[in-house]
Design goal:
Structural class: alpha/beta
CATH architecture of the domain at 108-231: 3-Layer(aba) Sandwich
Shape: globular
CATH class of the domain at 108-231: Alpha Beta
Radius of gyration: 20 Å
Distance between the termini: 17 Å
Number of helices: 13
Strand content: 5-15%
Length: 334
């Protein structure tokens, strides 16, 4: 919020923030993961900035009361069908990855994940003592709209789309591949390749720099984007944007990290990066967005690190300290 306020001030704008409860906080206060009034308020907003929602104290609750149900309901209510998860290795963090520097250096990919269909939402669903059923279902319009998001994104990047599916086994993936091929005909300037999800998981570790834009379904995208995030050095580095029919929804990819709650140790860079995505996609503030991302790169180049990036609390900056460093760098660049 400090970063957004600073960006607004320099652009002559004033951001108004309205806070609402969701997930665990809403369960504690209201007994449900999200209220209908909150969903409506989000639909009426210009953009939604979301914190993490989970925690182990709610793990034993019935499925319909889990904190994550609030997030799924919010995405559905806002029509956010396209989840953009950029994974970029800042040069200063190339050695922080669990892979060798020469494998991850220069990595800059975008996972475009279909967010409101697939196995997470397909019916029927049921569970009893002897059987659990989930249904994986996609329709042509759902695949077409997410494919177009991916191709449009690739046009502004390196003009390559990798569509990830399991078409050798799944009927839904066979539909997915046919529709993506049809959409590709409208983008002759963009190269399309298809890749099975198991191979994609392997290639992300073997040669991740080969990817530009990855487009895939809900569950595959959930898994692959988390895998890609670890190539960057920490899950605390990955922002995300969820776009679609209404206001954009912006959130860090990481969870709530209850083990360090209240200790001023959390890495704020994924959230700050999400704010930069908000400025770019919801408000068209491209200059300010780029300045924030450049400020993040600057503080990392100068050696600023949170505990997750160092692997130890020794010498690590606090959440507040690294936020202030980014603010200072942003103000000097803008």
């Amino acid at each position: 919020m400090k970063i957004l306020t600073a960006a607004g001030t320099r652009a002559g704008l004033h951001f108004e923030f309205e806070e609402r409860l969701i997930g665990g906080a809403c369960l504690e206060a209201m007994g449900l993961p999200v209220e209908a009034e909150t969903l409506e308020a989000c639909r009426q907003a210009d953009a939604v900035f979301l914190g993490a929602v989970g925690g182990p104290q709610w793990d034993a609750l019935p499925g319909h009361l889990r904190p994550e149900k609030g997030l799924l309901a919010l995405r559905k209510a806002m029509g956010c069908y396209a989840n953009l998860r950029p994974a970029k290795v800042f040069p200063a963090l190339a050695s922080a990855s669990t892979l060798r520097r020469e494998v991850v250096e220069g990595l800059d990919l975008l996972v475009v994940r279909e967010l409101t269909g697939g196995i997470y939402f397909g019916a029927p669903k049921r569970v009893n003592d002897h059987e659990g059923v989930d249904t994986l279902r996609y329709t042509s319009p759902e695949v077409e709209r997410i494919a177009r998001v991916a191709f449009e994104a690739a046009r502004g990047r390196r003009q390559k789309v990798t569509s990830v599916d399991k078409a050798n086994v799944l009927a839904s993936s066979q539909l997915w591949r046919r529709v993506v091929n049809t959409v590709a005909a409208d983008y002759p300037d963009v190269t399309l390749e298809h890749m099975l999800v198991d191979n994609a998981a392997m290639q992300l570790l073997r040669h991740p720099a080969q990817f530009d834009v990855i487009v895939t379904g809900n569950m595959f995208g959930d898994i692959l984007s988390d895998e890609a995030s670890m190539l960057t050095g920490s899950l605390g580095m990955l922002p995300s944007a969820s776009l679609g029919e209404g206001p954009g929804l912006y959130e860090p990819v990481h969870g709530s990290a209850p083990d360090i709650a209240g200790q001023n140790r959390a890495n704020p860079l994924a959230t700050i990066g999400s704010a930069a995505l908000m400025l770019r996609h919801s408000f068209g503030m491209h200059r300010e967005s780029a300045a924030i991302e450049s400020a993040m790169a600057t503080v990392l180049t100068h050696g600023a690190r949170t505990a997750d990036l160092l692997g130890t609390a020794e010498g690590a900056l606090s959440t507040e300290e690294i936020t202030c460093a980014v603010l200072k760098a942003f103000e000097s660049k803008y």
